[in-house]
Structure formats: C-alpha cells, structure tokens
Amino acid sequence: MNGQIVFIIWRESVEALLVVGILHGWLSHAPGGAGGLRYLWGGVAAGLALAAALGLGMMRLAQSLGDEAQERLMAGAMFLAVALILQMVIWMRRHGRSLRHDLERGLDAALTVGRLWGIFALALIAVAREGSETVIFLAGTLAAAGPIRFNGTLLSVASGFAAALTCYALLQAGSRWLRWSTFFRISELMLLLLGCALLVTGAGHLVSLGLLPYGDPVWDSSWLLDDMGALGGLVASLTGYRAMPDTVTLATWIGYALLVTLLLRPWRRAGRLAGPA
C-alpha cells in the first residue's frame, strides 16, 4: 500500500465531501431548496466524469510517448502537482475561514433568481477541481513510486477514501477533537511536506535525464533512518527525506523551504491582523 496515494485520496476526497456536504445541508433546509438536489447530484456526477476524462487522457498521452519522453512527462506532472499543492495551501489560507459563507451566498443567489443550473455549476466545479487535482497528484506520485501492483494501488485508493468518509462523518457530527480548523492546519502541513517529496523526486528525474548534475552524498544518516527501509521509505514518500542527499537534493530542500516561506508570509501576516475567527 502506498502512503502517498492514501494521503492524496484522503485529502482531496474529504475537501470535496466538505463542499458537497455544505451544499446538500443548505439545500435540505432552505425554502424551495429541495428541487435543487437533482442539480447538485448532477453536478457531482458531471464533475467526476470530467476528472475521469482527464485521467484517461493523461494515460493515453503517456502510452503514446517513448521512455525518455514519458520520464519527462512524469517529471512535469510532479512539478505541476507541487505547484497545485502550493496554490491549494494559499487558497486555504485565503478562504478557509469563509468557505461555508461563500458557498451559501452563491446558493442564495442561485435560488433567488431561479437559476438552479448555478447549483449544478457549483457542484461540478468543486468536484472537478478536486478530482482533476487528484488525477495530477496521482500521476506524479505513481511516477515517483515506480512500478506498483494494481491491487496495492486499489487498496491505497480505497483506504484513502474510507479515511475521508470517516473524517467527514466525525466532522459533521460535531466532534470536538477534530474540527475543520484543525483538519486544515494538519492537512496544510502534510500537503507542504508531500510537495517537498514530489519536488525532490522530480529533481531526481532531471538528474537521471542529465539536465541537472549528479553529485556525491553530502552526508549519510541511514544509521538513524534508512529511506530504503519500511519506516524510512514511508517517511521519504511523504516528506522527501533522503538518508544520503546529494547537492541537488539539498538545494531542492532549501529552495522549497524559501519558496514556501515567501509565498505564505502575506497570508500569515493577514491572519495575525484579522485575529481569531
């Protein structure tokens, strides 16, 4: 079972479930909202179909390319996944506090003017966004992991989705020990670490392609945690840890940390000025 796949499916599924849950809860209690449920579920189905089409398109494109071109494509998918992770974290910083309010305001506008297709569009965009990001993340993750058995991948996907359903049920039940704010903070950190893991693997692909120089290991910490072992391999896949990092890996770590700091500094400052929610 692949830890990265479990986390990706969990993270993306629970956010999509959050959005759909807010829409469903509002429509179930709003006057005249019951008629919008058909549009809601239609939007969910259309969003899933759009994400699946993207996945099939990427698979066919990869199969039509040569070995070196496939490696370049997968490296590009990893870098794109890193960019999406950073964009998602910034979006969470910007909209996390007002997500429910923004969605319900859009629903109010849709019902007021009788545009139930607006509800369809809200659901489609929410599900397609999370689904398409999942496809891109999985493409990068599977490329980083190398050959994976189908059963293991299927088990990872099922485990991630089961974890998402469990978290969603707990959150909707009003659990005091796992609130949405806590979920966002924990998943934000895990997303940033996963972004580092994908970036390190992508840089490794560029080294193997001869686009970046190969260097000797700077140190060897395998005595403490071997990234080829069971525990070390899991840590490496989720954080980008390497027991024997070369100069490219070290530069990737430092550059990523600086980039994250620069990108999140405005939102950290805005959060302090806004005060607690």
From TrEMBL:
Bilayer-spanning residue ranges: 6-27, 39-61, 73-94, 106-128, 148-171, 191-214, 247-264
Keyword Transit peptide found: no
InterPro entries: FTR1/Fip1/EfeU (IPR004923)
Gene Ontology MF terms in the entry: ferrous iron transmembrane transporter activity
Topological type in the membrane: Multi-pass membrane protein
Cellular component aspect of the GO annotation: high-affinity iron permease complex
UniProt KW keywords: Membrane, Transmembrane, Transmembrane helix
Annotated compartments: Membrane
Pfam families: FTR1
UniProt similarity note: Belongs to the oxidase-dependent Fe transporter (OFeT) (TC 9.A.10.1) family.
Identification of the protein by name: FTR1 family iron permease
Organism the protein comes from: Cereibacter changlensis JA139
